[in-house]
Write a structure and sequence with these properties.
The complex is a heterodimer of chains A (335) and B (444). By secondary structure, chain A is an all-alpha fold. Helix content of chain A is 79%, strand content 0%. Chain A is globular, with a radius of gyration of 21 Å. By secondary structure, chain B is mainly alpha-helical. In chain B, 74% of the residues lie in helices and 1% in strands. A two-stranded antiparallel sheet of chain B has the order 1-2. The radius of gyration of chain B is 25 Å and the shape is elongated. The chains are: A mainly alpha (335), B mainly alpha (444).
Chain lengths: 335, 444
């Protein structure tokens, strides 16, 4: 056995890149749900006391934080497969601030739970509740900032030689936040459309939710203009998809159309896909000359890949069953 | 593939990894054991119409979710972060060999957390039968996560035929896979049983009799601890002989930790059987916490032993703990450190540098992964009483003097550079010590 073969890629780079993109979009969708839940908590703490959706939002927030982390593990895995050399070097160059993400995650996650307990104890908004909401938001921003920093730091054949300006990281964070906001708008809108159609929820709550989603989508799609050198093709895709979902949302404000949520959701997925493609294209442009996927040694592990595919299919079937269990449980609660 | 070097100061890289890894292992084991215990006990509660046990399990599942889903998931990601910084060469090998194992584990983990949340948030909102089924999905997916990850962890000690074949299956289903899986399962169940006692004591709605009833129900998960000795014998029988020797007397610290881990586990298992199940004794909160502390220390000890007996390797017979591959050492010896191992930590011109500066870089690459200058496993006190000649003598024979140390890799000139740098540490130490004695003498 040639020892060098042991370092060959276990997967063709194109497949790894495709899986990276797919799982990154899923990660962004859950991040959007988390952002939506955080917005709702801000509304609960600083807005009306009798917020309609505190309980579902609490569940959504906890689930979203958990699934965002879990869904984020897969792109983190494929980034290491594809760009390990750059990713590790940039992580080492950043050092302790990179490791601090573990602390941000712990504080942010536990603050979500603490907010719920505080809300129940005080029966509504409270000073401590506001602190917990702010803590979670700050932690999410800090995590986004550090990831953006690592991404920019890794866009070099020698990450340790470049000092990435924090202002540039901030600019990148606006783009990343914009993508999360697009997804959050779609989630809020989806919830509003569902409420609008179930005929049990007050119409005002449903309309407010759709309007919130429309605002988020509009702002987030427009903000992509502000972030700079990310390529016109990507802009057109993002804006096209973003405004398509926006239009679907606006229609939903005036008409009770169950199907209105689907084009909005699909357009959001398309927008996020555009952002991810743009992000990776930018990386490949920056690493051109040092990284060439065509020349990387590949020794595919198709047997292990087959195991993954089988488990994935079984996992999806189990998740579908779990969702059906949840749907039946909710129906039983309503009747 | 070379990487820059991260210096965490006195904390040391290995202690940084150890802290996060041990915390994660404890929580992850509890997640697996708790996942198996809950549906098992719920099925029993339904079968015997035991409402007290059923209500308790709802609270227990909340504890499990708060503890394992948050801290467990986060520290799991944290391990990747810290290993990537501490040992990028090793994680590169692991990622490339096990990307599909990790991806498979990721699927199990998604199912695990989804079923866990459905189980907790929809308590009493579905039929008991369906609820137990959701619990079983959680238990199976949690244990399968362990199943997958166990293969990656054991690979590092026993890569087995992988060294010759490079096959994923040889790497994953390696010689210590099965004994390690059973050892971890026993440990996971025990943690779940102990936390039944802890949570039962924290539940103010339970009187002593109800508490005793629940603790007895949970104590069955402690009994398998009695299997720790035969399972350990199996584990060491298939582990590399040199590694087993380290735990069985070859290295004092490891032997002590191993002895403590085995003894504590066996005693807790016997106590559970004779004290809790046979004689129906009650455990109060203090005792339950003491048992939890013993179980934590025992698990941490066994993890320490698992990491320790692998030395001087990080991947046995393939890569040393300092990230140098076994087949790389000869090349470095022949061509010299800076020719064979270009250091990318900084723009370093070794031709223009002083011997001490070159030695410092060699120290950072070859020694710093395990030895901080001052602090964790510090190098300064180790060489405090050695003169330059002794440092050189010992460093040249490092792997022969201490079996758990990797060999020095470099030419005679590189060795002189390293000795020059280490001598500056020793001198500084002597100067500091001398100044201290002087000031004490002056004060008198």
């Amino acid at each position: 056995m040639n020892p060098n073969d042991l370092m060959a890629l276990p997967v063709p780079p194109a497949l790894a890149l495709g899986l990276f993109g797919l799982t990154f979009v899923v990660h962004m969708l859950f991040l959007g749900l988390l952002v939506a839940a955080l917005w709702a908590r801000v509304g609960a703490e600083w807005g009306k006391k009798d917020l309609y959706a505190v309980e579902p939002l609490h569940r959504a927030g906890v689930l979203a934080f958990s699934t965002t982390i879990t869904a984020g593990v897969a792109p983190l895995l494929f980034v290491q497969v594809l760009y390990g050399k750059y990713f590790y070097s940039s992580s080492i160059s950043i050092g302790f601030p990179w490791l601090a993400i573990v602390g941000y995650l712990l504080v942010g996650f536990y603050s979500l739970y603490l907010w719920r307990w505080r809300w129940e104890k005080s029966g509504g908004p409270s000073g401590a509740g506001k602190v917990f909401v702010l803590l979670t938001i700050l932690c999410v921003i800090a995590i986004g900032f550090t990831y953006s920093w690592n991404y920019l730091q890794s866009l070099s054949s020698a990450p340790w030689t470049q000092a990435v300006r924090h202002s540039k990281v901030g600019q990148r964070l606006v783009g990343y936040g914009g993508a999360a906001a697009i997804a959050s708008g779609a989630w809020v809108m989806w919830l509003g459309h569902s409420w609008r159609n179930d005929r049990k929820t007050p119409t005002g709550a449903a309309i407010a939710s759709i309007a919130g989603g429309v605002l988020a989508l509009g702002w987030a799609s427009s903000s992509q203009f502000a972030i700079g050198d990310w390529g016109m093709a990507g802009w057109i895709l993002i804006l096209g998809a973003g405004f398509l979902s926006l239009a679907a949302g606006i229609i939903g404000l005036f008409r009770r159309i169950g199907l209105a949520r689907w084009p909005a959701a699909l357009a959001t997925v398309a927008a996020l896909t555009g952002l991810v493609i743009q992000r990776e294209s930018y990386r490949l442009i920056m690493l051109a000359g040092d990284y060439d996927s065509a020349t990387v040694a590949v020794r595919p592990q198709w047997g292990a890949f087959a195991m993954f595919v089988v488990v994935l299919l079984l996992g999806i079937a189990t998740l579908v069953w779990l969702l059906r269990v949840v749907r039946d449980a909710q129906r039983a609660m309503w009747t | 593939m070379n990487f820059p070097i991260f210096d965490p100061g006195p904390m040391g890289l290995s202690s940084l990894v150890a802290v996060i890894a041990i915390v994660h292992v404890l929580i992850a084991h509890f997640a697996v054991g708790g996942g198996i215990a809950i549906p098992w006990l719920e099925a029993r509660a339904i079968r015997t119409n035991d409402r007290v046990l059923g209500d308790f399990l709802h609270k227990y599942s909340r504890f499990l979710i708060l503890f394992s889903f948050v801290a467990g998931a986060v520290t799991g990601v944290g391990i990747w972060f810290v290993i990537a910084i501490a040992s990028p060469e090793a994680i590169t090998v692991l990622i490339r060999q096990f990307v599909w194992a990790w991806a498979t584990e990721w699927v199990f983990f998604i199912v695990e957390i989804t079923s866990g949340y459905v189980y907790y948030f929809y308590w009493d909102r579905m039929s008991p039968k369906t609820h137990v089924r959701v619990g079983i999905v959680y238990a199976v997916s949690a244990w399968m996560s362990l199943f997958v990850i166990n293969g990656i962890l054991t690979f590092m000690l026993t890569p087995g035929d992988w060294l010759a074949t490079g096959s994923f299956w040889d790497a994953w289903l390696n010689p210590t896979f099965w004994p390690s899986l059973f050892l971890r399962t026993v440990s996971a169940l025990a943690l779940a049983g102990i936390f039944v006692a802890v949570v039962a004591n924290l539940d103010r709605s339970l009187d002593r009799e109800k508490g005793r009833h629940i603790i007895e129900a949970g104590s069955v998960f402690l009994v398998p601890l009695a299997l720790m000795i035969p399972l350990s014998v199996w584990y060491f029988a298939v582990a590399p002989h040199k590694a087993s020797q380290l735990a069985l007397g070859g290295a004092v610290a490891m032997t002590m930790f191993f002895g403590f881990g085995i003894l504590a586990s066996t005693l807790v298992g016997l106590y559970a059987y004779f004290g809790l199940i046979k004689n129906r004794r009650y455990i109060n909160l203090e005792t339950a916490l003491l048992l939890a502390a013993i179980a934590f220390v025992a698990t941490a000890s066994m993890e320490y032993v698992r990491e320790g007996i692998r030395k001087p390797f990080i991947i046995y017979d393939y890569m040393y703990a300092n990230g140098l591959k076994v087949d790389e050492v000869d090349k470095i010896n022949q061509s010299g450190f800076f020719e064979a191992k270009p250091v990318v930590a900084h723009e370093f011109d070794h031709l223009a540098a002083t011997p001490e500066e070159r030695g410092r870089v060699i120290y950072q690459v070859e020694c710093q992964r395990c030895h901080a200058v001052d602090g964790y496993n510090a190098i300064r006190p180790l060489i405090a009483t050695w003169d330059a000649e002794m440092i050189k003598f010992n460093t040249r024979r490092l792997n022969r003097l201490k079996g758990f140390m990797p060999p020095f890799a470099g030419s005679e000139s590189d060795l002189n550079d390293l000795v020059a740098y280490l001598s500056t540490l020793r001198t500084a130490n002597w100067q500091a010590g001398a100044a201290k004695s002087e000031s004490k003498g002056g004060g008198q």
